Amino acid sequence: MLYVVNIYLWASILLYLLLGGADFGAGILELFTTEANRSRTRKTMYKAIGPIWEANHMWLIIAIVILFVGYPAIYSTMSVHLHIPLTVMLMGIIARGTAFTFRHYDAVVDDMQTIYNRIFTWSSLITPLFLGIIAGSAVASTIDTNAKGFLNAYIFSWLHWFSIATGCFTAAICAFLAAIYLIGETDNDTDKKRFIAKARSANIAAVISGALVFAAAHIQNIPLADWIFGNPVGIAAITAATISLVSLWYWLSKGKTRVLRVLAGFQVSMILLTTTYTLYPRIVLLKGGTYLSLTEHAGHMKTIETLAWALLLGSILILPALFYLIYSFQKKTEKSL
User: Where are the transmembrane segments (predicted)?
Assistant: First the structure.
């Protein structure tokens, strides 16, 4: 049952990155869109993420609940030593959701719309940025559970080049996913070409920021290259991701929506696989060579078994309802067009 819980944890992180990340990326794309094209971008974005923009946070909630219930030592360590980036990320989620609601459903169109738009776009960038910072800090061996001063305990645990580079890479990935998804949400050839161009730009940004992650890892003596290229699974995953990247650029010129979405999702899955396979079951690397593990630091087995059954049974109830939600809103959108 422990492996069932671990699989759900990994899957929830992946789904939040793919689905929630694309939502954040839509706001990032709007932030870097010219004023003349922003209204059309918003219209396409509402159509794409409107039905499930709030439901996507379900995957983050599942991951947090799994850590809280099944791995209290891991949850408490991250909550204490990374509470600043966690707070910023959660505030970004709240601010983004609030701004999205008010700018879309506010009955009065006035100057407040400008404020809503700015809150939405900037929080869309800040949230995945700090999500990546948290992920980078978890594996950078910078969390010092024995730290005495405030800076060492709560600032330098996450404020370093590797975590910042990881945050930039995460934001670029989100923008890339959003551009890929939005290509298929418009029937306007001009907008489709615009999203294709943005997908290419975001992909280039992801490659550059990915290189910065490796550079920062080298500076901080983090064996990232060994984690990725030091095992057959990592090599195979990176090779597959590279091949799919070449294929994706080819299909971008063709505008094949379904193929592009599959390739983009596959690339992100391979990236997450390469960075978690070697470290597993370790999930948090601490300063001094110690770590927190998904097997050694799990809660009581009775708790794990109960959690596993709750996840399995919950999937039977939640997933069909989620799929029906998406299906029903797509049908409603098609009728309104």
Answer: 6-32, 53-74, 80-99, 119-140, 160-183, 204-222, 228-252, 259-280, 307-327
